[in-house]
Structures are given as C-alpha cells and as structure tokens.
Amino acid sequence: MIDTASPRQRAFVLLPVPPKADFDADARLEEAAGLAEALDLHVLRAETTPLRAIDPGSYFGSGKLADFAAEMNADEISVCVVDTALSPVQQRNLEKAWKVKVIDRTGLILEIFGRRARTREGRLQVELARLAYERSRLVRTWTHLERQRGGGGFLAGPGETQIETDRRLLADKMAKLRKELDQVRRTRALHRKNRRDAPYPMVALVGYTNAGKSTLFNTITGAGVFAKDMPFATLDTTVRGFETPSGVKALMSDTVGFITDLPTELVAAFRATLEEVREADILVHVLDASAPDLTMRRREVEEILESLEAGSEHGQPVVEAFNKFDLIPDDADPDFPLPDREKFARVMTSAVTGEGVERLLATIDKALAQTASTLVVRAGTGDAEAVAWLHRNGAVLDERSDTKTGETTLVVRLSPEDAGRFPSQFPGVHAHLRD
User: Fold this and answer.
1) CATH homologous superfamily of 199-370
2) Res. 323: pLDDT tops 70
3) What is the CA angle 259-357-352, rounded to 5?
4) In terms of DSSP bridges, do strands 395-401 and 408-414 run parallel, antiparallel, or are they unpaired?
5) How far apart are CA 136 and CA 221, in angstroms?
6) What is this structure's pTM?
7) Are 15 and 83 in contact, with CB atoms under 8 Å apart?
8) Would you say domain 10-112 falls under CATH 3.40.50.11060?
9) How far is CA 38 from the centre of its chain?
10) Are 111 and 119 within 8 A, CB to CB?
11) What is the pLDDT of residues 120-152, one digit of tens each?
12) Which CATH code is given to the segment(s) 372-433?
C-alpha cells in the first residue's frame, strides 16, 4: 500500500530565557513542545537558551544565530518554534539566517485555534485574530520591492503600493468579519438572556489549557464533547444541564482554556465567548494537580479572570477543583497553593477515575445554596398552579401535606430573582423567606 499522507515537518522548539524570567523554564519548554505537537509537527529538538540581552533586529546575538543555524542544518529542520513574541523584523531576519520557517508563540497559538475552531462564531473569531496578526507582518512579503521608485522619485514604488493595497483588503475583510461576528454575538446574547430567564443557575468551568475541563464536563453532564490530552482541545463553548445532589437543576458550560501570554488578538476576539464566564453564578477553576508550574498557572487564570471582571473579586463564588489527582505518586507531598478560605472551596478530583466528582458536586451544591433564597410556602387545595411553578423553577427541599386541611407546605430553594417574582405572580399564596 502506498502511503499518501504528507510527512510531518521536522521542528526545533526554542525557548529564550531572559535574565529575570518569572517562569519555570522546564515546564514552559514542555508546554511549548506540546503546542508544536498539537500542530502535528515532529519535534526533534527542544532547548532553552539563556539571554543576556535581546537583539532588536534578530532577537538572538550573532553567536547564537550561527550555532542554531548549524544545529538546524544538521538535523534538516524545516520549522523553528521560538516560544516568545517576535516582531515582524525579528521573524524575517531569523528566517533569513536559519533558512527555515519561523513561528513565534502568538503565531503558534493562532494556528492551533484556526485548526480547532468548529462553530461559526469560533471560526470567525479566529480568522479576525489571524488577520490582525498578519496585518502587522505585511512588510515581510513585499521587502523585495521596497526600494523601487517610479516617476521623479516622489511617487511611491510598487512595493509600498502593494502593501497599502493589502492593508486596505485586510481592513475590508476585518470589517466584514466584525459585522458577521456582531450578528452572531447578538444571537448568543439572546441565548444567554433566555438562560437567565430560565430557572437554572449557570456553573462555568474555567482553567488553564489541558487541565481536564472537558473530561470533567463529560463526567458530570454526560455530554460527550471532544476531550483529549492536548492543548486547546476545546475552543467552542458548550452548555449542558446537570443535577446537583440536592436535586437542583443547573447548567454547566465548558469554556476555552487559558494559557500564559495568550495573544491579545485572541483575548479580544474571544471576549464575547468568555462573557459566559462573567455571567455564571459559580466558577469552577479546574487545575492540573500534576503540573510542575501549578502556582503560575493558577495565577495566570486569575489574572485573565480579573481582566474579564470575573471571579471572586467580582462577587462570583469560586470552587477550585485540583484535577488529575490520580497522576500524583502516593509518596509525593504536593505543594498546592493555599486558597483564601473566605473566597474559595477546594476539592481534589480525577475526571478519569471519577474520584472526588461527587464531592465536587456537593461543593457546587453548597455554593449555589449560598447564592440562593429559601422560600417556605403554604399552598391550599386551589394553588396547584403555584406548586407546579415552584417545582419547575426551583429545587423543592421538602414537601409535606396536611391530610386534614389539605394544605401543602413546601421548602423551596430559588434564585433571588424567582424568590422575588413568586409573591407577585401568586399573591394569594402565603410565602416567606426562611431564616
């Protein structure tokens, strides 16, 4: 049989480490290699390299440029992933020096997002972010025409003309994409409004990429969304229903994972998607308990949540689920970052084995109870419609009937909005908030 599949490109992953780097270099290099593998690149080499200074023209000094060029030539490398943000000039000069395709961290993440987006909104968002990234790099394509001049020397040559033409075409494309996205976002806003009008609270799973959010989401809701041990397996928000141990019906959303140095183009493009996070009643921050740079990842997620005006500082209860607990050796003594007990609850889970999932649901139940109102209702024989409304819109914690009077007493957990709505909708039914 003839193999017609294209061979995987041979890649070199390079992590520059500046003098005052505030990250775990080994963990960051492993993450960068994982991102490259997610693009189906064959990573032959992955190295860190310390930097004393950053060269504005080529990022690396001449000595390192020559050393890396020799290594890439010897290994027949065709793609080099430089795990940092490169300027267009630096990227162009590195490609000239090494004679390979150079991708920086922003381009790498954008490429992964472009391959993984499935919904129309996701594809539009990624395309808009990609065009914004490419607009700053147009000069790379037309440098061979830069010095050509026409007429008496005062008219722009064909290089500059072509750049301006491309910029105008990109601007037109981006304007069209923004209009399409506005329409999609209006539709999403209507869906969110319908969910807010429904009686079900929203629980949003958030966390660093590849923390196991989708696997946990499938375990709790039975949704069957795509879940794999790779970065950014989920890009499109999915919402499914589930039930807490006390019988509260709720909705859970599985959101895109965060990452260190997430490109600003993507943060802006996905802001509408991430509004699901801001409007959730409860946030479940899923952390990879086996990650060596757990503290950094936790801090990164909290910073992104803060930029979205979400999280504990903005009145949202947060439950921390330390997932993948089954991957930690029994004799290990993990140094987990301690949460602020007033703002966080902590649960150890394994979405794969199911360990701790019931405790997580019980913790979510407790957090929802703290944000809800409990109503005590006495309904007569003619109040069947009110009783049915309570069953539809809340969690009935207790229900007892008096056989002599025919009166039914219900203890119901409702959202604050529904607790205020019930007396006005059924003014003849006696109801009061339980202390």
Assistant:
1) P-loop containing nucleotide triphosphate hydrolases (3.40.50.300)
2) yes
3) 65
4) antiparallel
5) 43
6) 0.72
7) yes
8) yes
9) 16
10) no
11) 777 887 888 888 888 777 654 444 444 444 444
12) 3.30.70.240
